[in-house]
Design goal:
The structure is a homodimer of 178-residue chains. With 178 residues, chain A is mostly helical. Chain A contains seven helices and three strands. Chains A and B meet through helix 1, helix 5, helix 6 and helix 7 of A and helix 1, helix 5, helix 6 and helix 7 of B. The structure holds a DNA duplex (30 and 30 nucleotides).
DNA sequence: CTCTACTTTCAAAATGTTTTGAACGCAGGG
DNA sequence: CCCTGCGTTCAAAACATTTTGAAAGTAGAG
């Protein structure tokens, strides 16, 4: 294959590996995704293992993870006994999958814990010494700050996750500032 | 100290540790930040090491990282030889620091690599066999998709980073969808 | 300048994560 | 059925990160 095609493929695959790590996935997941994205045809586990020079076991596990995250789909090739995979090539769909399941859950949990903290502090107030009450009010202030922060995050996520095919460039620049 | 205060402190500190890991920082950084955030007064390295039951060496290194990220500040206590730290309590400032230095650089690099890929593919076009040309066009499509994606990310980051004191809740809900 | 109370550094140890490959399981063809 | 060609699993090995603590560095008080 021509030099330049190989070079582009390598840097794209490597870049997606990097991006995957950045998002808390494994490097291999990103590279598998990249390899599939740049392949006009679906690839088998062996194709992927050979292409990335990693073990088949690793490909198997990581491909299942990619499937769970909605980043790749199994493709049935008639007359073939092998499994074939293709990348989900709508990047916005991928982002919505990830933000929708993982990040939203994180934020949800955080908000949950923070509400419980507010509860606890309010309930306990009566039993506190004056000194403790002062600290309790301090905690309450900080916890409320965190709540405000996570609520904005939650709204931002909902906006992205709930959006249609893709976000409009111009629209994003129209986020207004206080 | 009262039970409930300890419980709230623990869960908040643990939660910020989790969040830190989520953002690609170390757990300890998050817990140090949390401890400082919940302390009405600045804390010394020893206070922090004792409070979190980790070594002073670790506290020293992680606090310097927190400082570099603009998440904590050194506070001079007169008549004291120890170093004291306080959390940067404006969470929006913290987010802007992180997005501004780290995430923006990532996106920048990605866009750079993608432009180079487009260049390479266009330059090489003439030398390609017909079959390679087809693959090249396929690559170009995928690379352009990625570019579009990162450009939106770049704009979103610029919006947050360039914003003033804090983002308005309502405003975030007004991001428009294509 | 020296002493002392601190902070920083860093190499070794502990811990955590990823990768591998051999063993196993399973389905379809003969 | 059994055989074959695949996919999956999982324990052990390789690798990476984090933590520790002891040694070295540093700054201020006297």
């Amino acid at each position: 294959m021509h030099n330049s095609l190989t070079a582009v493929s390598n840097s794209t695959v490597a870049g997606l590996g990097r991006l995957a790590r950045f998002f808390g996935f494994s490097d291999v997941m990103g590279r598998l995704y990249g390899t599939l994205l740049l392949s006009p045809d679906p690839l088998s586990l062996d194709d992927l293992a050979d292409g990335l020079e990693i073990s088949k076991g690793s490909v198997s596990m990581n491909m299942r993870a990619l499937e769970r995250w909605g980043m790749a789909k199994e493709v049935w090739m008639r007359g073939e006994r092998k499994k074939y995979y293709a990348a989900e090539s709508d990047l916005w769909q991928v982002i919505r999958n990830v933000l929708g399941s993982r990040e939203q859950r994180e934020v949800q949990v955080a908000l949950q814990v923070l509400s419980e903290s507010v509860e606890k502090l309010k309930e306990a107030e009566a039993e506190l010494t004056p000194e403790e009450q002062e600290l309790s009010r301090y905690y309450l202030d900080r916890v409320v700050d965190l709540q405000a922060f996570f609520k904005v995050a939650q709204m931002a996520l909902e906006t992205v996750v709930g959006s249609g095919e893709s976000l409009d460039f111009d629209a994003v620049t129209r986020i207004e500032i206080e």
